Amino acid sequence: AQSVTQLDSHVSVSEGTPVLLRCNYSSSYSPSLFWYVQHPNKGLQLLLKYTSAATLVKGINGFEAEFKKSETSFHLTKPSAHMSDAAEYFCVVRALTGGFKTIFGAGTRLFVKA
Amino acid sequence: EPEVTQTPSHQVTQMGQEVILRCVPISNHLYFYWYRQILGQKVEFLVSFYNNEISEKSEIFDDQFSVERPDGSNFTLKIRSTKLEDSAMYFCASSGGAGGPSSYNEQFFGPGTRLTVL
């Protein structure tokens, strides 16, 4: 079975400070992991993905995530938040389990204060 | 940059009516998907479609739902008789993968159609 847990429903940071959005996953098979961002009234945009290559993955807009198999985590980080980063972020796991299953986390809403 | 488009952006309908949500996937993609997100809840997988047939569907995708690729560019989701609980944001997505299905293939999402059932 697969599952994704985003540990925080809301995260609030000040502009210029680091961002940490936490994601833990469970999968019986080697998963691919993704982070998507959703700005208000917009579709889901891919930030980055892990597909069994390098465990530290760099994405767009300065975001990166590290796949830690021992901790079953795929936390999203950014060294310095920008006002435009305020959005909803989704951690997604996808694996072949009797067909490809795509499971979304519940989402973390990021607030950035000036 | 190619993108997935969806129409309409917002659809309001009466309970019991049929609705068709339309999507234009990225032109060289082979796999197509529908997801929904009820307000305040998770994004949920509904169905995937490949080679003109459904390849996977979730428990949500019951007989009230159907998908079609009528003309080689559009990908539609039909809800035959809408219920109040069908009110949600519906996202279409597509992915490439000419070499076959893979968990690695990035899914490109459209902006969504907000369906409101009254």
Descriptive notes:
Chain A is mostly beta strands and 114 residues long. Helices cover 0% and strands 57% of the residues of chain A. Chain A is built from no helices and 12 strands. In chain A, strands 2, 5, 6, 10, 11 and 12 form a 6-stranded mixed β-sheet that branches. In chain A, strands 3-9-8-7 form a 4-stranded antiparallel β-sheet, with no helix packed on it. In chain A, a hairpin with a 5-residue loop joins strand 5 and strand 6 (44-50). Chain B has strands at 5-7, 10-13, 19-24, 31-37, 43-50, 53-57, 65-68, 75-79, 88-95, 108-109, 113-117. Chain B starts with a strand and ends with a strand. Chain B is mostly beta strands and 118 residues long. The model of chain B has no long low-confidence stretch (mean pLDDT 89). Chain B is built from no helices and 11 strands. In chain B, strands 2, 4, 5, 6, 9, 10 and 11 form a 7-stranded mixed β-sheet that branches. The interface between A and B is medium-sized, with 25 and 24 residues.
